[in-house]
Automatic annotation (TrEMBL):
This is Cyclopropane-fatty-acyl-phospholipid synthase. It comes from Streptomyces mangrovisoli. The keyword Ubl conjugation does not apply. InterPro entries: CFA/CMAS (IPR050723), CMAS (IPR003333), MeTfrase_dom (IPR020803), SAM-dependent_MTases_sf (IPR029063). One of its GO terms (biological process) is methylation. Residues 155-388 form the Polyketide synthase-like methyltransferase domain. PANTHER family: CYCLOPROPANE-FATTY-ACYL-PHOSPHOLIPID SYNTHASE. GO terms for molecular function: methyltransferase activity. Keywords: Lipid metabolism, Methyltransferase, S-adenosyl-L-methionine, Transferase. Belongs to the CFA/CMAS family. SUPFAM superfamilies: S-adenosyl-L-methionine-dependent methyltransferases (SSF53335).
Length: 433
């Protein structure tokens, strides 16, 4: 067969009812599609079988992670071109049964089955999460965190660079270094929390210890950092020791729900609340409120999705849930603010920094691609492909305003109702050099 690309392209266009915006190269070396367009490389028939058995995003993700599909050309351009066919038509994949009532669609589906060969369902790649148990128990949260973070600290060093900060940086301008932008983010959080020497800070989801170390070293506070990842904790403890801060920074492998040594003067939660889950969010907010002193501040840094017309039918991103952040849930920023207020907090400031995350993700992708052989050696080809796809697609989602990220500053008021905030609090603006 020397025309697989043309047949594949024609059948897919017939099935979707729209032209494919990319070129296709098939396993037999044939090509079809617009000259000069990015090329979708279909390495084998198994890729087609994956799409037949799991139409839409998850089938494409499985083929990508397994190496059955690849892209030649600019990754961002290709994902942008494909977005309207995959992510923006997500519901279409689940209504394939209705579409198959159309004789032309049925004929296209039969043609794809014939092209794919023996139509047995390929096993998912080993990087896909096998889920069991209830969501957001201590056990399932620990397992989900381990899936994402316990993939080797050396791999994350490639992606994140020396700062080892795995959340949105705060850019003075696009030409700044990633390290400078991440330092500015940490300093911004410290400024919003009003940290002073001698205070106690709880860093929830402390990662590799960057926030804890920065706050202790630059602001003289005592810090407890908690994470569910043992690999992160071991790495963070070594960094703390290397900085000579073991008397001021304690890193624990501990669930935030089990922290019982409050009160704290301040709490930072940076890129952690996405793991909490909608059903547990009020509990999360109440637990943090209880751990703060009156007058204490919480800085909650969290990715947000846009509200849906019908929130009862909100669809979790299949690729992200299966390969990246199992059980992760995004909420609209308004819902997050409401839950924090229900827990007793007063909201003092909300800052949207969506564009900053797009810049951060593009830098992470650059670092991953620049050291690709080492990344594959450390984490495996499938895992490296997961990270490259999710970071590039996420950058486009932030740029396209499909998701956002916000820093919410909240206060546990004093007994007399005072906030302890200055009259003109928003003086943090540009972090100090």
């Amino acid at each position: 067969m020397a025309d697989a690309a043309l047949r594949l392209r024609s059948l897919v266009e017939q099935l979707l009812g729209v032209p494919l915006p990319v070129r296709v190269r098939a396993w037999d070396g044939s090509q079809a599609g617009p000259p000069g367009a990015p090329t979708l490389v279909v390495r084998n028939r198994r890729a087609v079988r994956r799409l037949l058995w799991k139409p839409g995003e998850l089938g494409l993700a499985r083929a990508w992670v397994a190496g059955d599909l690849d892209i030649e050309g600019d990754l961002y351009t290709t994902l942008d071109l494909m977005a309207s066919l995959v992510w923006e038509r997500g519901e279409d994949a689940r209504t394939l049964g209705q579409a198959l009532r159309d004789p032309e669609v049925r004929a296209a589906a039969r043609g794809l089955v014939k092209l794919a060969g023996l139509p047995l369902p390929p096993a998912p790649p080993p990087e896909e999460v096998r889920r069991s148990g209830h969501l957001h128990t201590r056990h399932t949260d620990r397992r989900a965190i381990s899936h994402h973070y316990d993939v080797g600290n050396a791999f994350y060093e490639i992606v994140l660079g020396p700062s080892m900060v795995y959340s949105c940086a705060y850019w003075p301008d696009p030409a700044a270094t990633l390290e400078q932008a991440q330092r500015d983010k940490l300093e911004l959080v410290c400024a919003k929390l009003g940290l002073k020497p001698g205070q106690r800070l709880l860093d929830v989801g402390c990662g590799w210890g960057s926030m804890a170390i920065h706050a202790a070293r630059e602001h003289g506070v005592t810090v407890v950092g908690v994470t569910l990842s043992r690999e992160q904790a071991a790495y963070a403890r070594k960094r703390v020791a290397d900085e000579g801060l073991t008397d001021r920074v304690e890193i624990r492998v501990q669930d935030y729900r089990d922290v019982a040594d409050g009160p704290y003067d301040a709490i930072s939660s940076i890129g952690m609340a996405e793991h909490v889950g909608a059903d547990r969010y009020l509990e999360y907010a109440r637990d943090l409120y209880a751990l703060l002193k009156p007058g204490g501040r919480l800085l909650n840094h969290q990715i947000a999705r846009r509200p849906q017309r019908d929130e009862t039918t909100y669809r979790v991103d299949e690729f992200i849930d299966a390969y990246v952040f199992p059980d992760g849930e995004l909420a609209p920023v308004g819902g997050t603010v409401t839950q924090l207020e229900r827990a007793g907090f007063e909201i003092r400031d909300v800052e949207a920094i969506r564009e900053h995350y797009a810049l951060t993700l593009r830098r992470w992708v650059e670092r991953l691609e620049a050291d690709w052989p080492a990344a594959v050696r450390l984490a495996g080809a499938g895992r490296a492909r997961v990270w490259r796809l999710y970071m590039a697609a996420s950058a486009l989602a932030f740029e396209g305003n499909r998701i956002g990220v916000n820093q919410v500053l909240a206060v546990r008021a004093n007994d007399d109702g005072g906030s302890g905030m200055p009259l003109r609090a928003r003086t943090w603006g540009t972090p100090a050099p």
